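Deliverable D2.4 — example input (structure tokens):
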């Protein structure tokens, strides 16, 4: 007896295909189209093949922006992931203090990105800013608008303050999901705090830490609003990351072809690093099973 098939169910997923096509595929295909053409105006466009990709890949300013972007993202990850785990481990497990800590921890995540930059401009000003004035009154010259080192320090402090709570909240959720029986077994075996962390908590948090690592890498690699508001890419080009440089090409110079090729290369770089991080994290701990 043949089974009757009702293909009408496919109509239920058509809205999903339409939304995905409108939100992702069509804009992506538009960028691909621009990346292989030289556009002078409406109806005036010429096919150039991979010329824009070659020019962008040979652009030394892009190499410089890419190096700074990678340095910034890796410093963010090396700081925020361990710090977020440490904060999660120190937080209360239950009671009103746990709820209060969660609310306070989430506050920086509720502030819009451009407001974050404005807050840190005022906070670090050497004349009236609380942080800037205290540091300068202590005899340490600090001005993020004039010193490249001070600009990087300010950017790192701002990023850590803004996004470490996300890592801490994810790590805290992972810790709370560990069954109490694991801790009781470790207590019976006389395991130290480090052993509990190394062999119980860290492996059990691998899933949430994978999410935290990928989210924080993608966000720090795509960062634009905060450094643009805080430093505008300066002093000079010391904080001109890939996103700021891309906007200069696309909006400032209105070079749509190179900007489109730049966007696709930017997209592929992010995909490559996310895949590498994901593969590396999936491999963590699997050697113990052998």
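Example output (designed residues):
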């Amino acid at each position: 007896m043949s089974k009757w098939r009702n293909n009408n169910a496919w109509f239920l997923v058509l809205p999903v295909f339409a939304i995905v096509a409108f939100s992702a595929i069509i804009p992506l295909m538009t960028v691909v189209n621009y990346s292989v053409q030289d556009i002078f105006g409406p109806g005036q466009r010429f096919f150039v093949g991979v010329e824009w990709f070659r020019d962008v890949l040979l652009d030394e300013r892009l190499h410089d922006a890419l190096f700074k972007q990678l340095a910034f993202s890796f410093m963010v990850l090396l700081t925020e992931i361990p710090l977020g785990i440490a904060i999660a481990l120190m937080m209360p497990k239950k009671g009103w203090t746990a709820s209060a800590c969660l609310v306070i921890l989430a506050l920086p995540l509720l502030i819009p990105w451009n407001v974050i930059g404005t807050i840190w401009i005022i906070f670090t000003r050497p004349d009236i800013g609380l942080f800037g004035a205290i540091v300068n009154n202590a005899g340490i010259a600090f001005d993020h608008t004039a010193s490249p080192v001070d600009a990087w320090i300010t950017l790192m402090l701002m990023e850590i303050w803004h996004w470490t709570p996300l890592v801490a909240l994810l790590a805290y959720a992972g810790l709370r999901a560990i069954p109490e029986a694991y801790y009781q077994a470790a207590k019976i075996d006389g395991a130290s705090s480090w052993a509990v962390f190394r062999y119980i908590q860290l492996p059990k948090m691998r899933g949430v830490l994978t999410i935290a690592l990928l989210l924080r890498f993608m966000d720090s690699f795509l960062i634009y609003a905060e450094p643009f508001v805080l430093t505008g890419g300066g002093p000079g080009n010391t904080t001109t990351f890939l996103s700021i440089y891309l906007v200069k090409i696309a909006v400032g110079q209105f070079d749509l072809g190179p900007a489109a090729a730049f966007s696709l290369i930017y997209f592929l770089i992010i995909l490559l690093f996310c895949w590498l991080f994901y593969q590396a994290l999936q491999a963590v701990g699997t050697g113990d099973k052998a």
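The longest helix spans residues 60-90.
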